[in-house]
Amino acid sequence: MISSQTNRPLAAILGFGRFGRLWADLNRNFFDLLVYEPSVEARALAKASGYKTVELKECLDAEIVFFAVPMSAFESVLVELLKLKATDKLPIFSDLLSVKVYPKEIFKKYLPEKTKLLFLHPLFGPDAVRAQSGSCLGLPLMMDHQNLDGTELKVWEKRYTGLGLNVLQMTCEEHDRQAAWSQGIAHYIGRILEKMDLKPTSIDTLGAKKLHEIKSQVCNDTWDLFEGLQTLNPFTRQMRIALDQAQEELLDKLIPNRRFKDRLVIGIQGGRGSFNESAALNFLERHSIKDFELVYLYTTEAVLSSLHSGEIDRGQFAIHNSLGGVVGESITAISKFNFEIVEEFKYLIAHSLMIRPEIEFSEIKL
């Protein structure tokens, strides 16, 4: 049993990573802090910062346990902690995750219904505090709870408003809905810019500099955080779909319906003299299109890639053969691109065997 050396209550912080260190510093005047951290380096850093490092079981002696672990480890750490409890009495459990519906569901899965829970999400990180010279003034803190009475809730709110934080009372569900379109979209765009390997130029505008700031800020956080924001928030999938659809619509608007005013450029799956060329010519004749240019691209992927980039106006390729079945190469390529089908048509393929007039057919050996 661990007891406080002062009149202050005990609080335990599980995890002493980049954010766990920030949360410990913010709470050091409210509690005598216990830190659980498996990493030898992080544990040494906690001791050097003046915090008492303990084993996981000892965290159950605290009045409140703050989970500052990676999202991917949250459930396993909770399960391991509960294996160590000696009585049915539990401290207040508080998660600091960037998603809220997920920890709420995990707590519900493993904890008694009457357990007191405090859901917190500091909507800032060490960089934001550092940018304000160590001040938290005006920075937002989301708060929700379960089974805390009005007096208890006011105590917690007063603690953090006293630090200058802007405490936002909202449900876990509403938090995740809004977070998908704020933190979630910012991290998603930042990682896209990283994937593109976006680099500063000598003529960057203010807007371009802001993009680099977003990239730098989100990529300073762990991949675990990014993955959790995108997969554990039930609303971020809708955000990503909407963003991708908007990008596709803008791209389509920037590609002209025709590259040249005097002719239609059609890319085909085959080469010169191929059945695809014959099928394309059949289409053009049926639609009375006389001014055209055929581009021989040989593969369906090359056709769709050229169509996507605006190098051709239309594309033509085979998707099915009555004897051979589905054209696998086309199906694979179709899965990679968005496009509109103008027309699907059947075309009769006829093979002819030509021999010299003085040769008898019976003399042909296969």
Structure in a nutshell:
With 366 residues, the chain is an alpha/beta fold.
* Basic shape: elongated
Individual helix count: 13
Uncertain runs with pLDDT below 50, 5 residues or more?
none
Q: Give the N-terminus to C-terminus distance in angstroms.
A: 91 Å
Query: What is the correct CATH architecture of the largest domain?
Result: 3-Layer(aba) Sandwich
Order of helices and strands: EHEHEEHEHEHEHEHHHHEHEHEEEH
The averaged pLDDT comes out at 92
| Largest β sheet strand count, sense and barrel closure | 8 strands, mixed
Descriptive notes:
With 366 residues, the protein is α/β, with parallel strands linked by helices. The chain has three domains: 10-170, NAD(P)-binding Rossmann-like Domain (Rossmann fold, 3-Layer(aba) Sandwich); 179-254, no CATH class; 266-366, 3-Layer(aba) Sandwich (D-Maltodextrin-Binding Protein, domain 2), CATH 3.40.190. Helices cover 42% and strands 15% of the residues. The protein is built from 13 helices and 13 strands. The protein has helices spanning 18-27, 40-48, 74-83, 101-110, 126-131, 150-161, 172-195, 206-219, 223-231, 236-254, 275-286, 300-309, 328-334, and strands at 10-14, 32-36, 52-53, 64-67, 92-95, 117-122, 140-146, 166-169, 264-268, 292-296, 314-316, 320-321, 325-326. The strands form three sheets. Strands 3-2-1-4-5-6-7-8 form an eight-stranded mixed beta sheet, sandwiched between helices. A three-stranded parallel beta sheet has the order 10-9-11. The longest helix is centred in the middle third of the chain and has 24 residues, at 172-195. The relative contact order is 0.07.
